[in-house]
Amino acid sequence: MANDQVFTFHNGVAVPNIGFGTWQIPNEEAYGAVTIALKTGYTHIDTALAYKNEENVGKAIKDFDISRENVFITSKLPAQTKGYEATLAAFEETVSNLDVDFLDLYLIHAPWPWDDIGKDCTEGNIESWKAMEKLYKEGKIRAIGVSNFAESDIQALMDACEIVPMANQIPFYVGRVQKSLLAFCAKHNMVVEAYSPLATGQILDSPKLKKMATKYDVTPAQLCIRYCLEKNTLPLPKSTNEERILENSQLDFTISPEDVQILDAFEDIRAK
Ligand code: A2P
Questions:
Q1: Count of CB atoms within 10 A of residue 185's CB?
Q2: Superfamily the domain 6-267 falls into
Q3: How far is the CA of 140 from the centre of ligand 1 (A)?
Q4: Which of 26, 38, 132, 213 is the most exposed place for a label (fewest CB within 10 A)?
Q5: Is the pLDDT of residue 1 over 60?
Q6: 98 close to 131: Cβ distance less than 8 angstroms
Q7: pLDDT at 35
Q8: How confident is residue 163, by pLDDT bands cut at 50, 70 and 90?
Q9: 240 CB under 6 A from ligand 1?
Q10: Would the CB of 249 count as within 6 Å of ligand 1?
Q11: Distance 197 CA to ligand 1 centre (A)
Q12: pLDDT (tens digit, 9 = 90+) per residue, 9-28?
């Protein structure tokens, strides 16, 4: 698979360039799905306390014939958990659920609680970030970052804290180009991770996408995931189906710059 290639965070830590996403995979199904992903060759698994599947994600990794050092594990501080002590406590819960000694990447899941999107939580985010900096300096996390953060949210952390986030995980897919956020992250050497690279599956029926996929002799899903790499973002496709998990990792082709431009110009499915 193509994920023997890596992105490198600004602290030098390498992350495999495709991750297996586990959002919306229930705990009961997570063990099987992660086991298939590991068998397929994924070595980068993305979870979150809020997904309520960390226990079986961790168990699948433990039971698989792979050493902890050879799997890159990301988890996230719940969006509603803000503040220094609350962050330290949530981190302990995550490492205990996963049954690991350290995390490879820990992200603030969102700048605001999901039931209060847009709320100004700047102070809370700064306190959480300071706790994450402490955990990072203690060697309990190899890289720290954010998720769903806009430029202003990131700037607020950079103004008040020591460490520039190493990653920003955002929804990114064909038609949702996020040009200025991508440029901002690039300027600050932040890796952009693309969650929902298939627009949660909604984009796959597009006739235009299907036609282009045929030209490259790939599936629409492979075209979408490869597109993320062409845009220098790290895709986190998810599936619970063995064939599709494999399919999503077979990306050994490139999209021409002209076709990337056509994909950039796709209608954002949120507009429908
Ligand atoms: P399934 O788990 O049955 O494969 P996203 O990664 O953008 O959130 O999209 C995930 C959705 O896309 C899931 O519903 C998943 O369903 C579906 N999916 C994942 N991979 C493929 C694929 N290769 N072809 C078609 N649908 C896919």
A1: 24
A2: NADP-dependent oxidoreductase domain (3.20.20.100)
A3: 32
A4: 26
A5: no
A6: no
A7: 98
A8: very high
A9: yes
A10: no
A11: 9
A12: 999 999 999 999 999 999 99
- Nearest CA residue ID for atom 12, ligand 1: 201
Q: Which of 203, 218, 239 to mutate to test the pocket of ligand 1 (most atoms within 8 A of CB)?
A: 239
- Known catalytic membership, residue 51: yes
pLDDT tens digits, residue range 82-112?
A: 999 999 999 999 999 999 999 999 999 999 9
Beta strands in the chain (DSSP E): 6-8, 14-16, 20-21, 44-46, 72-77, 103-108, 141-147, 167-171, 191-195, 233-236
Q: What is the pLDDT of residue 267?
A: 84
Residue in the block written with tokens 């706790």: 131
- 1 vs 88, more confident: 88
Catalytic residue among 42, 51, 136, 227: 51
For residue 98 the two structure tokens come to 């996963």
> What are the sequence ranges of the domains in the chain?
6-267
Separation between Cα atoms, residue 249 and residue 157, nearest integer Å: 34
